[in-house]
Design brief:
The complex is a heterodimer of chains A (about 290) and B (about 325). Chain A has a single domain, classed as Thiamin diphosphate (ThDP)-binding fold, Pyr/PP domains (Rossmann fold), CATH 3.40.50.970. The mean pLDDT of chain A is about 95. Chain A has nine helices and seven strands; from the N terminus they run ααβααβαβββααβαβα. In chain A, about 50% of the residues are buried. In chain A, a hairpin with a 2-residue loop joins strand 4 and strand 5. The chains are: A alpha/beta (about 290), B alpha/beta (about 325). Chains A and B meet through helix 4 and helix 5 of A and helix 3 and helix 4 of B. Chain A: Its cofactor is thiamine diphosphate.
Chain lengths: ~290, ~325
């Protein structure tokens, strides 16, 4: 699960692109939901589910699996799309997002979709649950056998509960806990540094006794190396601050906070899918 | 008379009846639960001595987590531990947990269906001198309104111990409400206890009761004193001990209402939405009868001794008697 060949990176790029297409299709069908965050996190989800995580889509309850806690549940379209592409459930189910009776609730709910580790949506709660998981692993002597990952948004660094968890994990030197912060600089009301400045974010985590790695959030090789470094750090929990582009993959949506919380309409979705079908111009002909 | 079938404390009406804080029963119960099951873990937010989690901490330091003064973290960390198969008990003062961290409990424990026991100590007005900021009078309402959450409020230390052991074995998330002050011992080790079950602690020597008194928590002692004095004055009552507010023992509540046709509820809590509210919901739908509610009447507390406060806010033995006398006239 470590080395990434050029060939594998190409595979991951195509997979991430397929996941982005699914995200657009799901959101169009749902008529509500978040666009920017899911597109921005597609590369990271792809890398984890197709390369890093110890998991088994055919045996989701496997006790020894790694745990991936999604804290900012509102980006669940990327979670659902990735899980479907990796084989947890059929791709066609993605079209049920946010519809009555669906397993794919507007924000993830374990009762409906037991394959997710936690129900989530209200911000600032994921890291403390992941910290609790890592504490339990430490008590059971299992902290060398698996990793507990927590994906968080940068906006939810505003939440006091996030910092309570950061403090406790630092105190307990939870070596198998790895947080990944989606540093896309936007939240609903605007840019993070205008709403509630987070910088110097890396220094803040460092001051709470975490190992900090900053990395580009769309560079598979660099991301993979960051995770390997995090796994090797023995004396501290690690946070990977991943600099991502919100709306990544669709030029019109990129870097614009207005796409945080709304879905594309029909024309916007067509434009987005056209762009994604050529992998942002990398592929000349449509291969579908 | 005391219900002869329940093996209640025969010394209960003695002047020198033994008094023990209800929270101490929790502390002893948690230690026992920890002995019985290695998955039981304890978390505290800087109140280990006051919530009597110290017994567990001393015995099982490796299974104890100190989270600092961070109640939001307290319950969410517990949820994560429960996800890995632990049975977490997390304690603080009721005012802060569930007072401060209600949404965390809702999302990560109740909605998430994680077996965590939230222990709210120092609940009620009887916290006394600390004053209104520390007197949780809304916690029963807060917790019983939450789906997938059981609510238990024991009447003495022995019942608190049994409740703690039972909650360690039950599968659902739960809230355990504890009082700070020394409380007379009402039950014995032999008194039956089961989650979801209410028992008649006081009954007329002969004949039917005229009023049913339903009590949760530490006011049980005052209610029993009231029942005894009322009997001497010729008023027959039955007193129902209702430690499980949710799930509520509907059968016991309805059976009592059928016999007495009048109910007085007694709790150290706001009357809005508390145990009395839960009883009223059951009776309004199944067997409507007049009800008087003993509790705090939409007010905050203040500093004072527990006795002064209980009397001032209308929850003492005289107030309970007055409510019984009033409802007979209704």
């Amino acid at each position: 699960m470590s080395f990434l060949s050029d060939e594998k990176i190409k595979e991951l790029e195509i997979k991430a692109n397929d996941i982005r297409k699914s995200i657009i299709e799901m959101l169009l069908e749902a008529g509500s939901g978040h666009t920017a965050g899911p597109l921005g996190m597609a590369d990271i989800f792809t890398l984890f589910y197709f390369h890093i995580l110890k998991h088994d889509p055919k045996n989701p309850a496997w006790a020894d699996r790694d745990r991936l806690v999604l804290s900012n549940g509102h980006i669940c379209p990327v979670l659902y799309a990735t899980m479907a592409h990796v084989g947890y459930f059929p791709l066609k189910e993605l079209k049920t997002l946010r519809k009555f009776g669906t397993r794919l609730q507007g924000h993830p709910h374990r009762e409906y979709l037991p394959y997710v580790e936690t129900s989530s949506g209200p911000l600032g709660l994921g890291l403390s649950q992941a910290t609790g998981m890592a504490l339990a692993d430490r008590m059971d002597g299992k902290d060398k056998d698996r990793f507990i990952y927590c994906f968080m948004s940068d906006g939810e660094q505003d939440e006091g509960n996030s910092w309570e968890a950061i403090m406790l994990a630092g105190k307990n030197k939870l070596r198998n806990l790895i947080a990944v912060v989606d540093r896309n600089n936007i939240q609903i009301d605007g840019f993070t540094e205008n709403i509630m400045p987070l910088e110097p974010l890396a220094d803040k985590w460092r001051a709470f006794n975490w190992h900090v790695i900053e990395v580009g959030g769309h560079d598979f090789r660099a991301l993979n190396e960051a995770v390997q470094e995090a796994q090797a750090v023995y004396e501290k929990p690690t946070v990977i601050i991943a600099h991502t582009i919100p709306g990544k993959g669709v030029h019109e949506f990129e870097r614009d906070y207005k796409w945080h919380g709304k879905p594309p309409n029909k024309e916007e979705a067509k434009m987005a899918l056209d762009e994604l079908r050529t992998l942002g111009g990398k592929i000349k002909s449509e291969h579908q | 008379m005391l219900n002869p079938h329940l093996k209640l404390n025969p010394r209960i009406f003695n002047q020198d009846v033994e008094q023990v804080p209800i929270r101490k029963g929790f502390g002893e119960g948690l230690e026992k639960a920890g002995e019985a099951d290695k998955n039981v873990v304890a978390l505290c937010a800087d109140l280990t001595e006051s919530t009597m989690m110290s017994f567990f901490k001393e015995k099982f330091p490796e299974r104890f987590v100190e989270v600092g003064v961070a109640e939001q973290n307290l319950v969410t960390i517990a949820s994560g531990m429960a996800a890995m198969g632990k049975i977490p008990f997390c304690s603080s003062y009721a005012m802060f947990s569930p007072g401060r961290n209600w949404e965390q409990i809702r999302t990560t424990i109740a909605y998430n269906d994680r077996k965590v026991v939230i222990v709210g100590s120092h609940a009620g007005i009887s916290v006394g001198p600390d004053g209104g900021t520390h007197q949780a009078l809304e916690d029963i309402s807060l917790m019983r309104v939450m789906p997938n959450m059981d609510v238990v409020s024991p009447c003495d230390a022995i019942e608190a111990k049994k409740a703690t052991l039972a909650l360690a074995k039950s599968v659902k998330p739960a809230y355990l409400r504890l009082a700070r002050e020394k409380t007379p011992i009402i039950t014995t080790e032999e008194t039956p206890f089961a989650l979801g079950k209410a028992e008649i602690y006081w009954m007329p020597d002969v004949g039917l009761a005229q009023v049913g008194i339903i009590v949760t928590g530490d006011l049980m002692y005052r209610a029993l004193l009231a029942a005894k004095e009322l009997e001497a004055e010729g008023i027959k009552t039955k007193v129902l001990n209702l430690p499980s507010i949710k799930p509520i023992d509907m059968h016991a509540v309805i059976t009592l209402a059928r016999e007495t046709k009048r109910i007085v509820t007694v709790e150290e809590h706001q009357v809005a939405g508390g145990m009395g509210g839960a009883v009223a919901e059951v009776l309004a739908q199944n067997y409507p009868v007049p009800i008087e509610f003993i509790g705090v009447q939409d007010k905050f507390g203040q500093s004072g001794t527990p006795d002064e406060l209980v009397e001032h806010y209308g929850m003492g033995t005289p107030s309970i008697k007055k409510a019984v006398q009033k409802i007979i006239q209704r």
